[in-house]
Amino acid sequence: MSKFQGPMVQIIVHAEFLTTDSEYCRSMLKNDFDESIEGAIGIPNQRPATFDLYLNYVYRGTRDLSITENTSQQGEVLDKETKKSKADERHSLLFDAIGLADYLQSDNFHNASINALMESVLASGFYPVGTTDVVRAVELGVPEIIELLQDFIVHDGQTYWIPKSRGQRASGDFKFLEEHP
Q1: Alpha-carbon dihedral of residues 17, 19, 24, 27, nearest 10 degrees?
Q2: Tens-digit pLDDT profile for residues 83-114
Q3: Which of 29, 49, 121, 157 is 20 to 30 A from 172, comparing alpha carbons?
Q4: pTM of the entire structure?
């Protein structure tokens, strides 16, 4: 067993799960580091919900992290504002999961988190393209998040900002780009 210590939370986890999935944990727990002697690894700046998502991933062995939240627990259809709020919360958690995967050097969790983020965007119809999302992506410093966010910004953009020719704006879909490389 190993303990993970965050700023305020200590979680006891089976070391075998961690060392199998994470290069970082494998290095820390299977070599002559203080962490292997103490059986504890510090993971700074992680929300418990993010680490819970990771633990769920390693214990269940599932590659599917997607959750759709278009209905309430009672089965009622949610209004647009509530859907957006839930999507923003989910996107933030998945950004953090990608950052944690990068920190832990867990390629499989990293890929599962990116897939879940893309599926969440498609399912909710809301893109994480706000100022807070951009700042968070830059703070995490994970190139794949920044590239994905750029793609979301372009995809969520309106076609009217693409000039057809001088003084005109494109309308409709993005066929203009295909016709004029």
Answers
A1: 160
A2: 888 888 898 899 999 999 999 999 999 999 99
A3: 121
A4: 0.72
